[in-house]
Specification:
homotetramer; 5-stranded antiparallel beta sheet; 27% helix
Chain lengths: 360, 360, 360, 360
């Protein structure tokens, strides 16, 4: 399935940046989950550009739930949510202009030139607004089962946030932050780095770190539908994500087994690990500890500095100078997309494990 | 699908470490692909333990192709390949012993104690022998379309190999190496590191780096079935893999857009990128450049040093001292597993894109 | 996947009878297929109630293509089509009223009372409007490859239509008929039967017969994704379909092998069968002959005669007398739904077989 | 997925008639289900040819469980079961001989001549032995949840069995019958009809009718994964099945709504239907009544009478006279295949609905 993810709880995305709308169909969600439009709007707000560190495109992100909700709760049948595009300005986009770092060239090859090129079309980050809207319902359902998810900007450019400490408090603190860092002073330094890049007509990337608490042990399906594999599958759909790691991830490669193994211990009648180098997953199955993962987010490819490229119609070399409205960083906007993607994948894994009523 | 990966070309794995056999069903492979048993045996050989840096378990890895091959070629119908277990010694495994870093505890929770615990059962790295056998046929099919795959040990413990330089030559050079490094002197240093860890009753991890040449542009299915997402999905099934990154991966997070964007240029009538920070993939779709990815491999969790754990029957704390036969490192054995997994995922993506005959 | 059908070309349905809208997402369709809104409207027209033999609900079936079309052609990315509900009258529906023959009771059990009960909610035939809209694009794509599909009312109540004779001419003649019979005189008799049932506050069923020409040999995936299995899977989604048969179907059970086997013969350089008792499919794979199938359509369960039922809130027996607007027959409206479902399943099978560009 | 069926409980088939073996992988079955090898052997026995009404090929149907069973119970990880071929005689099969009514020609087109043609290869009814073996475990799991399945030969040639009356008693009586009829006198008449056909070098078909008791209400996933659609999907994989109907099926087409609707009534605190014309399914979801379905089985295409065909190598017309060992009827052997297919599809639907432990 191309634009559909999940087997028991499935999400389908559609829409283009400069078309009529973007949207999502959420199928298989348990019936009876409260649908809080204020919460959906809040989540969309977290994804919206703001201040001087974002694009000037300002979509109100008004959404319409077209189906699947009745009397304020999910019905259990497909929920379609629609977000109209209103603030589109296609003037800056040219059909044959292949922007480096973007999908322009690859989409051209795959779709033989029929895809909507304006604003990146279906490849635009705009489509993540629909993912966030669907994810808001998944997050609500998980919260009802005691599962909480939080993501912070662990690194932006060369500035690092502090590490997670008290997970539940940290996750709660992140919930409403538009620039999601655990240490606000470091957040200020990150914003300065973004502004500096913008001033240089350039952009910066970063790392997002996510923690999930309350996930029961025993979820995940080896060999192939491991929890890591499922999460990575959906996370790599997020534009700009180029790496995903769990627990200590790449740092594990430099440890010894005696350092990376998590010793087991009984605590209050439950098996717990003393450390969490494996990020809450062993053998592809959750172990009841907090799930921890990180996503590498590359710098926004849309920069205003001149770049070498090719005119796809003529095949001739061109010097591009993008003039559209662009983000000098998207890491702060992407974090709610990561939360949403993680929530959707976990709803699927839980429903597959415990049945379609589990999240009700 | 739990133990099945792929939608057009699909692989299903089965078997346990100390059961009768492990095996794979490869379904959807194009008809007419030559099945070279010598090549399959060679690939299995690359996965086998050897020398002083591996477990003493020495499975001959004899295999039987049970179906799907006729007169030396794939028939197009499911190919089942079986590898009998012969050198099993279950004495060292105890049912209630949860080894830190392994799936013992999570499998116990998920399967309620019914899973075969001996040697890790279905979670054993032994099952990767079946993946390698199926992958050998995928690699042959890809080679027939001009696609080559090579993986080297980019880092083992604290020793780094040299970077890829001349890709096709490097891939060719790696093909038959049992300890797959580009610089054999650094390989010697890595082996010393492994032996040092073994002497300390400990283990080491590493990073595997893979390059794929010859992949056409236009393969991959956004939003969700991106090439990155599909590859990561299968790669995280490999025991010990805890991170996957594409192109410059996590390093991208620290670059600026002007550094991470790959400029486009015409070369011999084709669009090429001047650099390859994105690892051959833009917007989830191949761009015709070499695909580059890296997997973080954690240290083997089976170590002989004493470890704190829990007896799962009594719930009491125990001090474990593993006495079985274990690998002080698996990074060198895992590389052919990575090659195989990448090949299987690419066969699926190509068959979905170009039809079921494409790989014939 | 619950409300999604297909693996390479996939359709997802959403919406409720009395909610905001019904709609479909068509994913994986080849890029470049012309999207003719007049043709979509014509297809929707064929599904709309008309005259005295249908419900008084008259939806204009205005549709909006929200995504996936650019400059009049499919883009290759997901196409979402939306049909707003306008002529809804929920007064006649009561939450706890379980109408015999409908999904009211089963939906209540499955969704624990959270589903939208008005007008049958997501189980309403209204949702087939979205299937028809998506199917129109599939039909256009198939026509571009020389594949034609036609369905006639083979039987309505006790009146039978004549059999297919000259397939291409018959299919062409059916295309624009609102009451699709090959012999219009028999069609008149069918309408009389429907009107007689309506006068008796009752309803009638029928049989729809479908022929497909131009399908190449070699399409279908045994063992499980046989052409018959895939088609039946989607056809049984159509409300009221309770039987599906291919070729001579159930009549084959009473033949001898010498009668039911289709002898092979060369004609103009191609292998053809002399008869077509197997309906164009052998071993689950198309054989190049016309594909022939039939669907049994049960009488509309909504009748105005009094019926015994249960109040689902109190558990007490009730005598129901439905007062809503209902069809005394749906077989004539269902035929375009069958055409659409067949088209969608065949697009998927062809794209899987020949690649995602095949239908371009 | 081609040779895999199911999303939570999945079965994969492999093997050829004259190859080394046929087999199945059953994945996702709950852990802890007793695996009774005697019962598996009994089920295989029901599929085996016997007496004068079957082929002379006599496979012992010895099976080996290669994985997924530990200490007599399912582990929850993939169960592979293997049945070696021993009594193969390929002399009668010629590569270019396309037998009418078989998959020889379609397989030739699809697999470009690479498929194993001997005995029909992967398309042989022999592969159903593996389906029966896997189905035996599914039947055991269902029995543990109070679900019973029974199939009788409702019609063979022109002889009809009596209808189901007391379902549980009828299902129990059928369990061990090698020629599964409810009325043994009619069974004798059927056998005579088969023998008469054999004497005429011909074959007969029939209708199999299946009843399922104990299935809870609320199982099935509209729109597309209806219970009817899922069951039909797997049933059409069985060679020779050319029609599937539920409840009164095609007969419904000739009823009026007042006759075909099943009135609802409370009985012992549960909602029941007074009649069961809909076969236990409304809106694609089980309603708690017995599930009833019928399969049309065409006459065995292998007959000894001369038939017109084509030599696929030369394209010239040939007169075929098959000399292999063939069944003059398979309806009696197919019934246990139908039981098995129904069981596998229901296990999948139940596990999806109630979670992966439900069948434990």
């Amino acid at each position: 399935m191309k634009n559909t993810f999940g087997s028991s709880v499935a999400v389908t995305l559609f829409g283009e940046s400069h078309g009529a709308a973007v949207g999502a169909v959420l199928d298989g969600m348990a019936p009876g989950v409260p649908v809080d439009e204020t919460f959906i709007a809040r989540q969309l707000e977290l994804r919206r550009p703001f201040g001087t560190i974002s694009t000037a495109r300002r979509e109100p992100d008004a959404f319409e739930i077209v189906s699947g909700v009745f009397e304020g709760r999910t019905t259990g049948t497909p929920l379609c949510i629609l977000l109209r595009n209103t603030d589109t300005d296609s003037a800056a986009y040219r059909r044959d202009q292949a922007r480096p770092g973007h999908a322009d060239y690859t989409a051209r090859v795959k779709y033989h030139g029929f895809a909507d090129y304006r604003g990146g079309g279906h490849f635009s980050g705009r489509v993540t607004a629909a993912l966030v809207a669907a994810g808001a319902i998944a997050l609500t359902a998980l919260r009802g089962r005691g599962v909480a998810i939080g993501t912070h900007i662990a690194r932006c450019g060369s500035v690092a946030d502090r590490a997670f400490e008290h997970l539940d408090a940290d996750i709660a603190a992140l919930a409403d932050k538009r620039f999601a860092v655990l240490d606000d002073a470091r957040g200020e330094a990150m914003r300065s780095a973004i502004e500096a890049a913008a001033a240089a007509r350039d952009s910066v990337g970063g790392v997002l770190e996510t923690a999930v608490t309350g996930l029961p042990a025993g979820v995940g399906e080896p060999w192939f539908d491991t929890l890591e594999g499922q999460l990575a599958h959906i996370l790599f759909s997020i534009p700009a994500v180029k790496g995903v790691e769990f627990g200590d991830g790449f740092a594990l490669a430099e440890l010894r087994g005696s350092e990376s193994n998590d010793a087991l211990r009984m605590e209050n009648g439950a098996v717990r690990t003393v450390s969490n180098h494996n990020g809450g997953i062993n053998g592809g199955i959750s172990n009841g500890m907090p799930l921890v993962l990180r996503c590498a987010v590359k710098p926004t490819p849309s920069i205003h500095a001149p770049q070498e490229s090719v005119d796809l119609a003529t095949g001739e070399g061109v010097q591009l100078e993008l003039t559209g409205r662009h983000d000098p960083a998207i890491v702060h906007r992407a974090r709610v997309v990561v939360d949403s993607a993680v929530a959707l994948a976990l709803c699927d894994a839980l429903a597959l494990r415990f049945g379609t009523d589990h999240l009700a």
